[in-house]
Write a structure and sequence with these properties.
Helix content is 57%, strand content 9%. The chain is mostly helical. A two-stranded antiparallel sheet has the order 1-2. The longest helix is centred in the first third of the chain and has 20 residues. The relative contact order is 0.24.
Length: 68
């Protein structure tokens, strides 16, 4: 599915807030948040930069539809 950048950007921002909240859940934990959270934040930040840098940028989402 191809989503225009203008439509995808709010979803990317929402994802960024969600990831930030996930990291905050581990504040009291001595081990800190899992490394995956930081990787996902970095990936999301890169995606956000691409979407906002060029108005023609699109987000492509793969969809799997099981059929019997």
């Amino acid at each position: 599915m191809v989503v225009p950048g203008a439509k995808a950007e709010p979803k990317v921002s929402k994802r960024a807030r969600h990831l930030k909240a996930q990291a905050a859940e581990y504040e009291g934990d001595p081990a800190g948040p899992p490394a995956a959270v930081a990787r996902h934040q970095a990936d999301n930040d890169e995606n956000h930069e691409r979407l906002t840098a060029n108005r023609r940028e699109v987000e492509i989402r793969a969809m799997v539809t099981p059929a019997v």
